[in-house]
Amino acid sequence: MAEGLIIAAAGTGSGKTLITLALLARMRARGVEVAAAKVGPDYIDPAFHAAATGKPCITLDPWAMSKAELVQRLRALDESAELVLIEGVMGLFDGAAGGGGATADLAAAFDLPVVIVLDARRQGPTLAAVARGLTAFRKDVPVAGFILNRTASPAHAEMLAEAIETATGRPVVGAIGVHADLALPARHLGLVQAREHEHLQKFLNQAAEDIGAQVSLCRLANLTRPLGPAAKRIHSCDDGEFWRLAPLGQRIAVADDAAFGFAYAHLLQDWHEQGAEIRPFSPLADEAPDADCDAVFLPGGYPELHAKALASADRFKAGLKTAAARGALIYGECGGFMVLGEAIIDADGKGHAMCGLLPFTSSFARRQLHLGYRAFTLAESAPLPWHGPLRGHEFHYATITDAKAAPPLFANVRDSRGADLQPMGLVNGRVCGSFLHVITRHADIEGAEETPETSGKAEPEGKRP
Predict the structure, then answer these.
(1) 187-207: string of b/e by CB count within 10 Å (b at 16+)?
(2) Which of 57, 293, 334, 432 is catalytic?
(3) What is the pLDDT of residues 131-185, one digit of tens each?
(4) Catalytic site residue 334?
(5) CATH code (residue 347)
(6) Nearest C-alpha neighbor of 107 from the set 146, 169, 60
């Protein structure tokens, strides 16, 4: 049975990702079997967590996922390690625009202790008022302690710790100074991907030594709670059933490189556990999907940064067209969707020819942010093997130009406030894609009905032989 806690923050940019990585790496170096999870829609942080733990980092999304699904994800974590650190998203109480999805919601639902990272730059005892407000804002959220980040000196850290502990009654379990050499570089969709760090293991080792050593692992361990009892208690309530998304096929070629790095670990794991073979390949290395694959998945990523290389990847593009001609299901999300189009126009206005399997061009010449959770269903024309209500998110700067008439992939699209949006995506036979990243199926869309018979190949959790 694993012990666990959540590492949260007062706001984005407080340093919780770096601190979480440092703690994971330090504990692993000491022989502790550690695992990690990430709250909210994120592909980039989990890749760093996986490097630090040696295990896939699973998403826990309290807006997209039902309680039944969260229970199963937590149970899997409980069986995978001695200690589980769950990194929060944004600030502790920040979530979907229409409410829900916050780190606090997960903590409250499962009574998971929260340790909050506080940015100490240019802060005095007023930071204690912030800490007290965080502990009092929601009584159902078990704030267990604090970690100070970017303290100016030992005296500064001592002053803040005394003020915070007096004001909140919770311990400060660590005080970390400024480590400019350990900053994680970022770009327009978040941190630079873990796979692009040439010396990632050296970076993690240094973080464990320089940052992890400034947090008391013993005091932190005293704040953890067992994951299992919380999951069992919630599961005893009638919170519905958990249907995994059916695999796209029996043998699924999955693009996996610096241009296509945004695949959710839980989806690939679910497909594998349902009997599908996952076969990675690299379009950037001009590799084609295996000839006997009956499905191809192009995840999101950064194709706009590699448009020239992808445009000249003739074997990849020919292999994708051959797969389409033989009737394989081809599905692209966001960046993968753009590569299925006719061209990508880069930020300088230069066009790069893509696969031409869907009738549109995507452009970064006029960037426009599209961001938010989405609830939706498959359109009638969709070839995907999924049924019922779906949930996911949208996060991109690209715009569509020169789109020709084609059936949509997703219908009944709503944002997190419940406002209706236009149908999304395109379908051309068994080739399809959209800017949406699908997270899961969810029964909480008004008017939706779920039955095992309409759930594709995946039976409800607990009802399979």
Answers:
(1) eebebebbeebeeeeebbbbb
(2) 334
(3) 999 999 999 999 999 999 999 999 999 999 999 999 999 999 999 998 867 777 7
(4) yes
(5) 3.40.50.880
(6) 60
Cβ contact 151:120 at 8 Å: yes
Q: Are 415 and 372 in contact (CB under 8 A)?
A: yes
**Tokens matching residue 209:** 């030594």
Which alpha helices (H) appear in 294-360, and where do they start and end? 307-311, 314-325, 335-340
The Cα–Cα gap between 281 and 285 comes to: 8
Residue 157 and residue 268 in one domain: no
Residues making up the chain, counted from first to last: 465
Per-residue confidence (pLDDT) for residue 206, from 0 to 100 = 93
Owning domain of residue 423: 251-454
- Tokens at 102, concatenated: 């916050």
- Domain co-membership, 330 together with 450: yes
- Asked whether the predicted pLDDT for residue 462 surpasses 70, the reply is no
Give the rounded percent of residues in the chain with a pLDDT score beyond 90. 76
Q: Shortest CA distance to 383 belongs to which of 409, 357, 355?
A: 409
Which of 410, 432, 429 lies closest to 420, judged by CA?
410
Instruction: List the structure tokens of 456.
Output: 């594709």
Q: Are residues 224 and 267 in the same domain?
A: no
* Range with the poorest average pLDDT among 75-79, 171-175, 365-369: 365-369
